[in-house]
Amino acid sequence: MTATAPEHAPDIIETFRGVREDFTRLMLSYQFGMDEITTKIRILREEFDKLHSYNPIEQVTTRLKSAESVVDKVTRKGLEPSLSSFRKITDIAGVRVTCSFTADTYRVFEALTGQPDVRVLEVKDYIAHPKPNGYRSLHAIVEVPVFLSSRTVNVPVEVQFRTVAMDFWATLEHKIFYKYDGDVPPEVVLKLEESAETAAQMDRDMEALHDSVHGPRDFRERDRQDDQVISDDVVRKLSQFLSGEGG
Ligand code: 0O2
């Protein structure tokens, strides 16, 4: 006996294929948006390192939310499970920039968001205003253009800027919450708040120590001085060349 497929099967398969293609295209655009941001951060990192002899960026990590976790968030927000609801979730693509000191988080944030093709959609400053549990980080939802073969798409990417100490706390806090499955005993909550304050104090101490040894990192002033050094050097070399001393 041969099984016959129901008449509407080809339609369903076509629809399913279409949805799958749209989903793949959507997730690819988030991947590309994330790539654009990481390239920008890599360029800033190299520039800071090579031209200013100071690298404020310790680590850059990326993550693409899984389809399951996007569906969870869509449901949590009370949206219907559709591709247009997916598009309303702005943290599908995430980049985390771990910096050396607190001032560096703002400096790198400014250097990234000051670029003309980066549009800031939202900023949450959990460094200036920590969450009640002690969580600290500077969050920005930015939109970057991604140039595809036939069109340009503007992709939202969540960028988190934090120090090593903030990252240490957040990573372990996440693990502890995961273990307790959201039902954390009050004494653990209190301990977490205290340890967040300890981490913040360590950030302040280490930054003060660094500045006392190396001087404050006023990058704008140093950019200006560097430009001055470069232009003086170029002028000197040019005049040597013109006077025939340049060899
Ligand atoms: P993952 O897997 O780390 O990315 P909203 O988008 O405004 O509806 P949401 O998503 O809570 O609300 O935004 P928010 O406050 O900007 O936080 C988003 C991300 O910040 C989280 O993403 C975490 O990465 C991080 N985060 C926020 N609060 C905490 C916290 O208390 N502890 C830790 N460890 N991380 C935090 P995800 O998607 O939850 O997780």
Descriptive account of the structure:
The chain has seven helices and five strands. It is α+β, with helices and mostly antiparallel strands. The chain has one domain: Beta Polymerase, domain 2 (2-Layer Sandwich), CATH 3.30.460. It is flat and about 90 Å long. The protein starts with 8 loop residues before the first helix and ends in a 5-residue tail after the last helix. Bound molecules: ligand 0O2. Ligand 0O2 binds next to α5. The site of ligand 0O2 has 10 residues, from α5.
What are the SSEs and their pairings?
Elements: H1 9-52, E1 57-64, H2 67-76, H3 83-88, E2 93-99, H4 102-113, E3 119-125, E4 138-147, E5 152-163, H5 164-180, H6 186-214, H7 219-242
Parallel strand pairs: 2-5
Antiparallel strand pairs: 1-2, 3-4, 4-5
Helix pairs in contact: 5-6
The structure holds ligand 0O2.
Briefly summarize what is shown.
With about 250 residues, the protein is an alpha+beta fold. Helices cover about 55% and strands about 20% of the residues.
- Give the neighbour order of strands across the main sheet: 1-2-5-4-3
Count of domain modules: 1
What value does the average pLDDT take? 87
Evaluate the radius of gyration.
Answer: 24 Å
Number of helices: 7
The CATH superfamily bears the name Beta Polymerase, domain 2
| Helix-strand category | alpha+beta
At the first level of CATH, what is the class?
A: Alpha Beta
Number of strands: 5
Bound molecule kinds, no repeats? ligand 0O2
Residue ranges: pLDDT <50 for 5 or more in a row? none
Helix content: 55-70%
Shape: flat
| N-to-C SSE string, H for helix and E for strand | HEHHEHEEEHHH
| Distance linking N and C termini | 93 Å
What is the CATH-assigned architecture? 2-Layer Sandwich
